[in-house]
Input
Amino acid sequence: MDQITQLLIPGAIVAAVFLVGLYSGRKLVRLPQSPEGVLSDARIEAQRILARAEEESRAKADTYRDREEATLEHRKVELSSHQERIDQTSATLEQRAQNLAQREEMAIEKERGASELAAKSARLAEETRLELEALAGFDSKAAKAELLEKVEDEARRDAMILVRDMETKAREEGDRRGRRILATVIQRVASDVVSEATLSVVAIPSDDMKGRIIGREGRNIRSFEAVTGVDLIVDDTPEAVSVSTFDPVRREIARRTLERLVEDGRIHPTSIEEAYAKARDEVEQSIKDAGEWAMLEVGLNRLHPELTTLIGRLKYRTSYGQNVLDHLVESGHIAGMLAAELGVDETEAKRAAFLHDIGKAVSHEVGGSHAIIGAEIARRFGEDPAIVHAIEAHHNEVEPRTLTAILVQAADAVSAARPGARREALESYVRRLERLEEIARGFDGVEKVYALQAGREVRVVVDPGSLDDLGSQDLARLIAKKLEADLQYPGQIEVTVIREYRAKGVAR
Output
């Protein structure tokens, strides 16, 4: 306050002197005063001004001080309020810490009690297990193994039931659709049943003709065999002479040559050569005609001339008594109709089925499977790779990879397996039946096996004590799979498993 007063006094004095001067000037006009009076008035005025300035300064200072004191008081109140809140928060945190510590102690206590309870339960379970084992007479491991075995048996039984149901549904659906398609195809095929022998028999008017055929010292028969390349059998059969050779075309030429000689009556080496030349020309022409006829019968319009000739040669080739050329024509029709039923390319299926046995035309001249030979011939004459694959795969020498190959297999099986299509030698027939029974006998639980219906059905009698009903169903499936893997057969073989349980009692 003293510093403010010291600063304000000089300014107040100057202002007072200035005001006094102005006032004195106006007064000088009216009342002239002495210098001492002027100075006294100025001093009085200055003191008065100074007093007023001091009062104003003091009032301002008091106001400033009051305001500062109010602000300080307000801040003290705020600080006190903050301190109270801090104290409350601290007390709350302390309370929470105490609660957490109590909860932690309770959790530790509960965990300790749970551990003790678990240990006690384990001891009780172990004591109970030991008591049960003592009462039952076997340990828990054996019981566990027995339970697992029981569960495994139940699971296997459920799986067998599922497999049986799925196989039944698939078989029913497949049989239904297959019967419909095959019935539609077969009822549209009408073919003759052809059965030819490997020997060609030529009828002669009398037994005197046998002497002419033999000739003086066997000259004619030696010449005939040399020119034709066949064996001429002149035996005790009345009014008949047999022509024998492995080549069916050569046998046909020789048969026609001998018929021409018998009809002419003049038999000598020169006439034999002339008759052979005419017969050979006739057979070659018939081969070409047969190949063209077969191609037109199936509905093919483009075929290599050499393939046509090879196809025609099959007119004189038989397989199990079935004419191979007729078999090819029939297979072509069946494959085409199967393709039409399934909605695939008919022309490709017909062509592949028509050419699938072309290897048999030269199989007696070239070693190997006729399927592989036929595929090589077809490939050599520019046939499509799909056709070649179907030819080489129709007997599973090569795994079939196309639908056409599967259709060719089906057409071949239908044509070969239909009633009356083929004949079978007695020895191979008996051997096949024995093989069927041998395969079925190799399974556990089988007591008796019977092959029926020319090997189309196998009936298996099993021990009822070793197999249940589901096991019998599974055994039938396994035997069928084994037959598919080990045997080759046309058509299908039905496996029937018979399980019969008989209980006997005697009353006395």
Q: What stands out?
A: The first helix runs from residue 2 to 30. Residues 216 and 287 are 35 Å apart (CA to CA).
